[in-house]
């Protein structure tokens, strides 16, 4: 029997790092055209609130890695209101393979490049096959404030994996600042063209601790 090139690292995971979250009210037509929705997500589509998340994990159970993901909307899956990932890129094969196996998250591999500037401004480029498909520059402003996802009502994701619905309730706490998006562009062939939308808010996360538990099978 052939051995996989990477050992799968089972849940739970603990991760630390920094990131950016863009919150959106996303029209359904946009998601049907650009959102990379799976059939079960189309069937369970419920509401407009969505997000783009860009994470720079300094530590995790599979080592440091970066991540860009799209949460298209709120869904009703397995009788629960929940988020669900429709498109996601990570920087390592270890994260991609284990993320698919553990939680059914459809991770693909891409290259990430970060540049830091004065006053906390940060630029990131994400590319595949030497072609940049996502570019963002974010500048934080205002004071830092503590945050925790325990206060968020739909702090869960549901993904379909091997004909089962897997519900995961990650928890994150750390610090946040509001931010301005200086540049943003996305190639619709690879990732939803979110530069066509205006975010409700942009938040820069720092020094967070995230716990990603074993998922619950709900279907």
TrEMBL record:
One Pfam family here: ADC
Domain of life: Bacteria
Signal peptide residue numbers: none
A GO MF label: lyase activity
InterPro entries per UniProt: Acetoacetate_decarboxylase, ADC_dom_sf
Descriptive protein name: Acetoacetate decarboxylase
The species this protein was found in: Rufibacter hautae
